[in-house]
Specification:
Radius of gyration: 33 Å
Distance between the termini: 106 Å
Protein name: Septum formation initiator family protein
InterPro entries: FtsL/DivIC (IPR007060)
Organism: Candidatus Sneabacter namystus
Helix content: 55-70%
Largest sheet: 2 strands, antiparallel
Keywords: Membrane, Transmembrane, Transmembrane helix
Length: 113
């Protein structure tokens, strides 16, 4: 009788350890549930970044199209030249924000002439 009790106990312990190992591998190994969740979070983050890059690419393509010689938009060209070269006409008034607070422009504006 003692021998069968020990055998049953050994079988139960072996089965319990087997289930524990299977559960551990299903959850925490390289292709487990935890890795699956982390990969999906990374995929979502990278998908958002990809969409942002696509929008930026479309914006740049539109700017390039406006600068093509076949469809040159003179107003756009002037705007880009002013922005890049920091130039203005003699009769223009330039408004420069005096300071920013937390990334927002202050309401105290100065006219520079």
């Amino acid at each position: 009788m003692k021998n069968t009790t020990k055998t049953k106990l050994a079988v139960i312990i072996t089965i319990a350890m087997s289930f524990f190992l299977i559960f551990f591998h299903l959850m925490y190994c390289k292709r487990g549930l935890v890795s699956y969740v982390q990969l999906h979070k990374e995929i979502d983050k990278n998908s958002e970044y990809l969409e942002m890059l696509k929008m930026k690419r479309i914006s740049l393509e539109n700017k390039i199209e406006l600068l093509q010689t076949s469809s040159l938009d003179l107003d756009f060209l002037e705007e880009q030249a002013r922005k890049i070269l920091d130039m203005s006409k003699n009769d223009e008034v330039i408004v420069i924000p005096s300071k920013t607070i937390n990334g927002k422009v202050s309401k105290n504006l100065k006219n520079v002439q």
